[in-house]
# Entry
Amino acid sequence: MRTQLTAAEAQQLILDAAVPLPPETCAAADAQGRVLAEPVVSRRTLPPFDVSAMDGYAVRSADLARAAAATPVALSVAFEIAAGGAPDRALAPGEVARIFTGAPIPPGSDAVVRQEDVWREAERARFEAPAPLAANVRPIGEDVRAGETVLDAGVRLGPAALGMLASLGRSHVTVHQRPRVAILSGGDELIEPDGDPTGGRIVSSNSYSIAAQCREVGAEPIYLGIARDRPEELERFVRAGLGADVLVTSAGVSVGDRDYVRPVLEKLGCEIVFWGVMIRPGFPLVFGRFGSHGPLDSAARGPLVFGLPGNPVSAMVTFEEFVRPVLRKLAGHPAWFRPRVEAVLGTRLRKTVGRLHLVRVRLERRDGQVVATSTGNQSSGVLRSMALAQGLLVFPADATELREGTLVQVQVLDEDFLAAADAGF
Ligand code: AMP
Ligand code: MG
# Structure
């Protein structure tokens, strides 16, 4: 087992131990947020024919070449094509057809004149201007041609992609399985939110923050509950989580007498890859895996295991830095890390050399720049300063001071700081 790893070393070991989960078929209606495991190749051409983009008249543009206000051209309205209808014959020279938006233009026609520019007199239509070739016509295949790749593997399915799938006639898609994350809290002091908070008991907030972090990244949390500080009980809970893709425990990973997470995992055959990462908050992180021979693959015998520190902010920050990227990799995303912004530091920060600090900051747009300011007390037990944070500022391990006004890297936790008061038009 290794210890005192840098954050980058720890992240590398974790990501190397994971491969994307296998594909499964999913109803397109349930596929929002899922990641395509294979490209979507269209079997259809869209639109499937030249379509009118306006309510008006399908014409042969040559018939209107000399039309002008002084020399109007009157042509006979031969038939009508509604949206959803199909022309039953071609347009002959000297003829036009009444047509509606979305209807296929008839053979022989090559333009549509919108109805506002046409004077209708019984069975004839009068035109006072030429119709440019292809005017108001959406050509066949403008959107998609049969055989084209429309969406690549690795694409996260959002509203437009789901609309696209529907228009291609796809009721099912092949996506990566969603990572299932078993979550377990450990400690005699822990209660559920509706429990009695007297006598030194505290609410197991980690159960809720971690489950929410899982959902936010598209993983499925499976909450196992609170294990008391007894090895047999912890073992029973851990066993219940062995069927998941990832097992996340919190607390009990330090060097206290009642820190049973590591021994219990080892007893069950988990290889502890490392303990202790040079970051703050979150030093006592444990990473382990089952099936220790060769890289993990889909036939691995057990989950990747994260023993997160118990302090509420340490648990959340280590999840952010080490669990979230691996969940994205398992889910099939091509990029695994939070977006980062370069921000101007609004408050001076100091620390000693040795550990990377991830500082909870508020982000604000000011005069075309992003300004980062500390959200307050950075103790690993102060969940409130995490709740106020829109980002985690990267304060490198070897640095001791960041002056006000310097440019810093911030991992963006909440993009809402970019939300605008108007639409920009
Ligand atoms: P431990 O690792 O067990 O020493 O826990 C470190 C600190 O985190 C202690 O103050 C615990 O009470 C606290 N803690 C442990 N588990 C949780 C949890 N699930 N929710 C909130 N706080 C916790
Ligand atoms: Mg404890």
Observations:
- The pocket of magnesium ion (ligand 2) is lined by residues 187, 251-252, 310 (CB under 6 Å).
